[in-house]
Amino acid sequence: MTTIFCFYYVKMLSVRVIFDPTQISRPTAIALGNFDGVHVGHRHVIAPILPISLRDRHPNLTSTVVSFSPHPQEFFSQKSRSLLAPFDEKVALLKSLGVEQLVLLPFDAALAKLTAAEFIQKILIDSLQVELISVGFDFHFGRQRQGNITDLQNIWGDRLTVIPEQKMSFGDIEPPPVRISSSNIRSALAQGEIDLANSLLGRPYNLVGRVVQGKQLGRTIGFPTANLELPMQKCLPRDGVYAVQAIINNPDAATQTQSQILGVMNIGLRPTVDGDRRSVEVHLFDWQGDLYDQELSVNLIRFIRPEKKFDSLDALKAQIQSDCQTARNYLAPNQQKLVTPF
What we know:
Blueprint: E1 9-12, E2 15-18, E3 28-32, H1 40-46, H2 51-54, E4 62-69, H3 72-77, H4 87-97, E5 101-106, H5 109-113, H6 116-127, E6 130-136, H7 149-156, E7 160-163, E8 167-168, E9 178-179, H8 182-190, H9 194-201, E10 205-212, E11 226-229, E12 240-249, E13 261-268, E14 279-284, E15 295-306, H10 313-331
Parallel strand pairs: 2-5, 3-4, 3-6, 4-5, 6-7
Antiparallel strand pairs: 1-2, 8-9, 10-11, 10-15, 11-14, 12-13, 12-15, 13-14
C-alpha cells in the first residue's frame, strides 16, 4: 500500500533528522513522544534506547527518537504553540544524549485519521521496523488518542519499556513532589520560578539567538546590551531581570572554546524608554567586543525582579547597578561548572 505521508531528509548536527522512510536506518529501537524541552522525565524515556543501552544485547538497532511536527495540539487547535526547545535546540539536545536519528512524523490530517492499529502497522512496523520501544506511562496514539500502552504490549511484550510518572521534591520544606512535565516547566517560567524550571529540566533554561542591533540606549547609561533575536516559537519566561551565564558561539573561530561570561538579562517592553515590543537584552560583566551577528547562548540562573517603569533614566541606571550587584553576589559564590545543552 502506498504510504500516505510526505517526507524529506535533513542531516544536521550529526543527528540524522528524517522525514523520508527510505532514509531511516533500520531496524530501530525507538522512544516515542513529543519531548519538548528534553527534560528529566524525557531523558528517562530516551535512556533505554540509547546506543550505550543497546550495544551489548541489541547492537544492530539504531537509536531513534520518534516525534511529531507540528505538535498535535498545534494541529488540532490551529494555534501556534510556544516551545521549550524549538527544532534546532531539540536536535542539539538529542545529539548530546547520543541519539542517532530523529524521525519527525508530519502531523497532518492523514496522520490524525490513522487508527491505533493503522499507526502500529504502517508507522511502527512497516516504516520503522521497530524492535524495542520506550514510552511514558500516559502515552496515547492514533485517532482520538485511542491507542494506549496495552496495544503496544500486545505486540512487543517485554520489548516495551514503560516509564512511570516522574516526580521531584523541590524546596527546603517538604511540599508535595512536583510532576516533571513540559507544562509544569512552562508554568514555572511564567512565574519566574527559575530554580524549579531548571530542576525539572535537569539543566539551566537556555535562550539561544543571534545578536542584532537595537536602539543602543544601554550604552548611553553605561550598560551596553546584546539584543537577542530568538526563534519565534521559543517560550519566554516572565518579564523581568535575571542573573545569567552566557556563552558566545563563534563558528568561524579557529578553535571552539566555550567560556562562561556572567551577566544580567532583561526581558520585557522597557517601559521606562517607551518600548513598543518585547525584547531580550543581555549585559555581560567585564566584557568588551563586537557581538553583532554572533550567536549567544544564555543560561537563566536566577530571577532577580519583575520589570517596572522608572521615573527617569538616572533611576533606571541606579536600579541596573543594583541588579548587577545582586547578580554578582549570587553568581560568584554559586558558580557551577558551565552547563550547556549544546
